Amino acid sequence: MKLYVTPGSPYARLARILVVEKGLSERVEIIEAKTRTVDSPYYRINPSGRVPYLIDDAGIGFEDSQVICAYLDSLNGKPRFHRDDSDWPYRRLEAMARSFCDGIAVWIREMSRPQNERSPTLLAHEAARAGRLADVFEAEVRQALLQPPPRMAHLILAAALEFARARGFGDLTEGRPGLAAWLRPISAMPSLQETAPPTSR
Q1: Residue 97 domain-assigned (yes or no)
Q2: pLDDT in the model for residue 200
Q3: CA distances (Å), 188 to each of 110, 118, 152, 169, 180, in order?
Q4: Is the pLDDT of residue 158 over 90?
Q5: Are 42 and 99 contained in the same domain?
């Protein structure tokens, strides 16, 4: 199998974490894709140009981190990171963590644009949204559903927090001791250490 990623994408990182956690490193080839580049050869592989993108052993391509992570988790018939689809309290948390990550990603993409092309309104909106959600998670991490063992909600939330800290958004655990304490052992997992996001220059 081939997994196309970019180093800075938190979504591609989630797929890379699953590769490590599920012992698939020898089965899945990690390939760095060239995205946001005119006429990139990657667009002939995945026309949308997004990452992650997985090509399975049959040559079928999968897009979207949720689909790819669920697929990788299921390969040995013993999924560890995905709960039953009818577990609505857990699915609520996972969706909220993904929304948190989405907003931070929008802020970081906007900041990567030339300064005269950035939208102050959008930046302020996403910063405020992230702050509100971080406040919610300050309480949520004390609840049973976000205790070990880790599931996808844990990984998404950790990836979002580390993405924000590494890419110039800021440390969203600052002033939130519960969230900071929750993040420390997850950040120490070998799979998260191995896939740590690059920092902004």
Answers
A1: yes
A2: 74
A3: 30, 35, 16, 21, 13
A4: yes
A5: no
